[in-house]
Amino acid sequence: MRRRIALLVVATTALVAVAFLVPLAVLARAVAFDRAVNEATVQAQALTSVVATADEHALELSVQQANASGRFPITVFRSDGTQIGADAERTPTVRLAERGRSLTVDTERGVEVAVSVGDAAGDQAVIRTSVSEQELMRGVHRAWLLLAALGVVLMGLSALVADRMARGLVRSTRELAGVSHRLAAGELDARARAEEPPEMRDVGTALNRLAGRIRELLAEERERAADLSHRLRTPLMSLRLDAEALSDPAESERITGHVHVLQRTVTGIIDEAQRRSGASTGEVAEHCDAAAVVAERVEFWSVLAEDTEREVRIDLAEGPLPVAVAEADLAACVDALLGNVFGHTEDGAGFAVSLSRDDETAVVVVDDEGAGFPAEDAGPLQRGASGSGSSGLGLDIVRRVAVDSGGAVRLERSPAGGARVVVELGVADL
């Protein structure tokens, strides 16, 4: 933008300079032309009194003196055909002037001036001089060079002034862009300085108000997360007490485990909301051992798989396998994947879970023996989209965890004809 503003100002200055300097150049040539012709005319007219009164000898001396001191050659043509002064041809202009009329005529070589005057003998004489093209243009080229230099100087000054003005404008724009990038990175304390011009000051003020509003919304989110934790604490505690009060120890232990998972999930959701709200505090990115987390969650779901007569195939890489994901987030991701298997396939449909590692990612693959994803359905990875009557949030949680770690999610068909979900997680640098 800075260069464009400078080019625009220079182009405008060039147009204005051409509009003024071209007429000035034409005027300079006209002035030089008139000056040379007038000077030649005055030089010729200065001899009229000598031609009219002096004898031939005195006239010849006066003409020689005029030619010696003047810029233009003087020739006096007498009525008897003789001529005094510079050698010159008796042109049609001279012959016309012999009839008693003074003339100034443009020729191919310049301008010819003929002054008609009566001599001492009572005959008609003609004082003739000529102005060459070089004399007509004397000083014109220099004037043109000065005008061109003036135009260049004006354009240079305009470019300098435009660059100074554009620099201030561009600096304000870049500062606003920098503040917006800092806000996007989670630095919510970033603020723009209110600077000229007024339009940029208005943008900076609006950006600051937006940043303040974002802080307010995040503060409200933290408050709501805390309120959610407080509201769920009592019903969860009641549910835990009811589970512990069951007469069957095995059933009590199973229900208590489910309550514990529910409580941990709710706590993880609240912690994630608070962590995202305070993302500008510069905390170090969290990581966990994917091998341990995936193994622990698969073990948990294997109990339910046994109850529903599902075959579980496990192929997990040996740990530690650090990934750039918080432990609670990875656990929620695996729970969402396996929960979908139990929720969208019939009892008895087996599934397989594998964990492997390449140079930059850890790959979690879940295959099931269900009906799989419809070939034309791209919705499961979109938040709130589901073709099976569910909330559609499970795979969105998986996608968000993968993307936040620097990975991705792919939906494929398993070798058994069911669904395959491939989750790539970024490996953490320890």
Task: Write a brief structural summary.
The chain is an alpha+beta fold. It contains 11 helices and 12 strands.
For the largest beta-sheet, the strand count, sense and barrel status come to: 5 strands, antiparallel
CATH topology of the largest domain: Heat Shock Protein 90
Order of adjacent strands in the largest pleated sheet: 2-1-5-4-3
CATH superfamily of the largest domain: Histidine kinase-like ATPase, C-terminal domain
Domain module tally: 3
The computed structural class is alpha+beta
Number of helices: 11
What's the CATH C level of the largest domain?
Answer: Alpha Beta
CATH architecture of the largest domain: 2-Layer Sandwich
Average of the residue pLDDT scores: 82
- The shape is rod-shaped
H/E element order? HHHEEHEEEHHHHEHEEHEEHEE
**How many strands?**
12
Q: β content, as a range? A: 15-25%
User: How many whole angstroms does the radius of gyration measure?
Assistant: 50 Å
Distance between the termini: 44 Å
Fraction of residues in H or I helices: 55-70%
Which parts are unreliable, with pLDDT below 50 for 5 consecutive residues or more? Answer: 279-284
Enzyme class: transferase
Main location: membrane
Membrane topology: Multi-pass membrane protein
GO molecular function: kinase activity
Explain the overall architecture:
- The protein has 430 residues and is an alpha+beta fold.
- It has 3 domains: 2-141, Beta-Lactamase (2-Layer Sandwich), CATH 3.30.450; 198-277; 285-426, Heat Shock Protein 90 (2-Layer Sandwich), CATH 3.30.565.
- The protein has helices spanning 2-45, 48-53, 56-69, 92-97, 133-136, 140-184, 198-244, 249-277, 290-307, 327-344, 394-404; strands at 74-77, 83-85, 103-107, 110-118, 124-132, 288-289, 312-316, 322-323, 351-357, 361-368, 408-413, 419-426.
- Strand 11 (408-413) and strand 12 (419-426) form a beta hairpin.
- Helix 9 (290-307) runs parallel beside helix 10 (327-344).
- Its main location: membrane.
- Pfam families: HAMP (PF00672), HATPase_c (PF02518).
- It is found in: Cell membrane.
